[in-house]
Design goal:
Chain lengths: ~350, ~350
């Protein structure tokens, strides 16, 4: 008889985790390849096309990094909260509220000069993101109200609030009733990185992630966060003000998502409209999960998720795949990577018994 | 100008006949055409009808490609990628792609861009649309005859002039044969949202409507009508298969005719930026076959009206008709100009529903 069982790993190193994740991605590509083959597409040429298109051109990489920018910020936003076992499912809503506040600044002070308008928009957006999560944060800290539910539901309020403005007083009179605001003044445009077709929001994202990384690993603040996250009771005995820390962490998390909103607004769209966030808040949760809330892992996984999105589009263009196939593909990848978690925590034991 | 172009075409045609190869530009078979769609090609409506047009080009030997379900906020990358891949023509088929199309077009001056349903053009960006309001008028006549409750529901997508125009044409059709009928409008503020569309159809029927007509892209409302034994009118493509016992008729597109025209122009090198608005005469806009419940005499009347429109004897936006508030819009013997029809921003009498307030 062969007996198969899982045995908990006593120690799971970063190396083991990383190699398991890579194996999972390869597994997903193979499984996806079977589906591709089934509908008459050569999987090898499809994958080759995606890689040559993205990595064979300067602009392929630019597209990828552009898509990656908001995912890094929502990823680190969710990951920071996750360090304290808090869930910020509301990054999408914070993106909308951040973009909304920044739009208000742009529409009200559009005539300001280049030096003041952009910073004002950033301050407004970051503040709005932080304030938008304050309600769930306060409820969580003081009454232990489920943060998954509250942050999620705040999304719908934010999206409908933005819709209300877009279909109402903020609608561009020249848009012929289409729900978009007027284009912002040129002063509200995020600067580009030199010689690359990419706005500096990408660098801001990297900077924020490094900042959070050092805060968490090198500062006293980081020690507190880790204690509360790993052992809430111990935290209480050691005299850490848990309530204050919950509110603070969640507000920083919201502020980062709000920042993502401002960057998308000033770097990409230059106006407020529907679908400013294409589910970036939710993808941020996936990024966090894939990177197990490690800040540096967020960079890698934001890159990976951007690759999945942009690559899916190229597969449509090149191989004529239907969009449903792309969704299926993304599903397979996430399923196998998240499912592989079990191998990071447990060892597969195969025993022969008499 | 048109005469000149015709001459040019003739000369080209003669030269082609003599040499047997292309002299100017290239053969249609060497063309690459790309399509950017706002919905899935399986929506059964708007995007589906454009994709039929794309397949028509494929049959002619044109190499085509498409990306479906492209959100407006993500469209610039998709359009740009097609331009980078040296496509000769890029068709962007949603109003919301207007500014992104223009942006990419300014970066790729040699590529031809055709934006559907917008109003901004550039040297290498043309716009095109069809006078489907003529077909909407005809479907309105069917609804006017077939309603018993004298309440007809319309599901509005976005309150932009295009949709206002279609609802007006539909209402004028209804009222031309049934002046007592009312047209109720509910906005869903989306092009493709089957669950919202179905819910809107239900509330219109709760409100007394026995026929539901749509300006959105899915057949959800038709299915909702069929479930309750009511009638419905489809949009963009023949929606009969979705709800055979509810489907009266549909206002349909036939983009293949137009795409063929543009592809030939681009291949010949005669393409110039334009604002095309082809009507029922060209076949780009039409009405589908009728449902079994529509009696023969009504079919005849509708077909007769269609012939009149084709012959130029009948005109949809001809006076007299009033605005929603009862004030006169167009007097007896007058009609709206194309510019006025294109930018129409008021409802005609008989529409019960509101437009967003202007804030300028």
């Amino acid at each position: 008889m062969i007996h198969i069982s899982f045995e908990k790993r006593i120690y799971s190193s970063g190396f083991i985790r990383m190699s398991i994740t890579i194996c999972a991605i390869i597994f997903a590509l193979l499984t996806g390849g079977v589906f591709l083959y089934a509908i008459g597409v050569n999987p090898f040429s499809a994958y080759f096309n995606v890689c040559s298109q993205i990595f064979g051109n300067k602009w392929g990489i630019e597209d990828l990094l552009l898509k990656m920018s908001p995912l890094m910020l929502t990823g680190i936003s969710v990951a920071l909260a996750a360090k304290m076992r808090l869930w910020n499912i509301g990054a999408d809503g914070q993106i909308y509220m951040g973009a909304c506040a920044a739009t208000w600044v742009a529409l009200t002070f559009g005539g300001s000069n280049n030096l003041t308008l952009l910073p004002m928009m950033f301050v407004a957006g970051i503040t709005a993101g932080a304030l938008w999560i304050f309600i769930p944060a306060f409820l969580k800290a003081h009454f232990n109200v489920n943060d998954i539910i509250t942050t999620l539901l705040m999304n719908y309020i934010a999206i409908n609030w933005v819709d209300y403005l877009l279909f109402g007083s903020w609608r561009d009179p020249n848009s012929l009733n289409f729900p978009i605001t007027a284009l912002f003044a040129p002063a509200a445009t995020l600067p580009m990185i030199k010689n690359i077709n990419l706005h500096i929001g990408f660098l801001i994202g990297i900077f924020i992630i490094l900042l959070i990384y050092f805060l968490l690993s090198k500062s006293r603040f980081g020690i507190y966060v880790n204690i509360v996250g790993n052992n809430p009771n111990a935290a209480e005995y050691s005299g850490i003000n848990k309530k204050k820390l919950i509110i603070l962490i969640m507000m920083i998390s919201g502020a980062i998502a709000g920042l993502a909103g401002v960057i998308e607004l000033t770097g990409v769209h230059h106006r407020l409209q529907q679908n400013i966030s294409l589910g970036y808040g939710y993808t941020g949760i996936i990024v966090t999960w894939l990177s197990r809330a490690h800040p540096l892992g967020v960079i890698f996984n934001a890159f990976f998720m951007a690759l999945v999105f942009v690559g899916g589009e190229i597969m449509q263009m090149k191989a004529g795949l239907p969009v449903a196939m792309i969704y299926l593909f993304q599903g397979i990848i996430l399923f196998s990577v998240l499912g592989s978690d079990v191998f990071a925590e447990y060892k597969l034991k195969i025993k022969r018994t008499a | 100008m048109k005469v000149f172009r015709l001459h040019l075409l003739l000369i080209v045609a003669i030269m082609l006949a003599f040499t047997g190869t292309t002299v100017f530009g290239k053969d249609v078979k060497d063309l690459k055409a790309a399509f950017v769609y706002v919905g899935p090609i399986g929506d059964g409506g708007w995007t589906y009808s454009h994709d039929l047009g794309r397949k028509h080009l494929e049959k002619m030997g044109v190499t085509t490609s498409y990306v479906e379900t492209v959100p407006e906020t993500d469209s610039i990358r998709v359009i740009r990628n097609f331009a980078r891949e040296n496509y000769d023509i890029i068709f962007t088929t949603s109003f919301g792609y207007m500014d992104t199309t223009l942006k990419v077009a300014s970066e790729f001056p040699k590529t031809v861009f055709m934006h559907c349903s917008g109003f901004k053009t550039a040297e290498n960006v043309g716009t095109y649309f069809g006078r489907i309001y003529q077909a909407k008028f005809l479907t309105g006549i069917v609804a006017g005859y077939m309603t018993k409750s004298n309440v007809i529901g319309v599901i509005g997508s976005h309150p932009i002039p295009e949709i206002i125009r279609h609802i007006n044409a539909f209402t004028l059709g209804v009222r031309s044969v049934n002046p007592d009928a009312k047209v109720k409008v509910i906005w869903v503020n989306a092009w493709f949202d089957p669950s919202k569309e179905g819910a809107a159809a239900d509330s219109l029927m709760d409100d007394g409507a026995d026929i539901v007509s749509i300006t959105t892209d899915s057949a959800a409302a038709l299915k909702a009508a069929e479930k309750r034994g009511k009638y419905a009118i489809g949009n963009d493509s023949d929606m009969k298969p979705y709800a055979p016992s509810a489907h009266l008729t549909s206002a349909v597109w036939n983009w293949g005719v137009y795409y063929e025209h543009i592809a030939k122009q681009v291949a010949e090198g005669t393409w110039k930026t334009n604002k095309d608005w082809w009507g029922i005469k060209s076949g780009v806009a039409d009405i589908s076959s009728f449902g079994d419940m529509v009696p023969a005499d009504i079919r005849d009347k509708v077909n007769k009206k269609k012939e009149e429109i084709i012959a130029g004897k009948s005109f949809v936006f001809q006076g007299p008709f009033n605005k929603q508030d009862g004030s006169s819009a167009v007097k007896e013997g007058e009609k709206l100009t194309d510019e006025q029809i294109w930018g129409i921003d008021y409802f005609v009498e008989g529409v019960a529903g509101s437009l967003p307030k202007k804030n300028n």
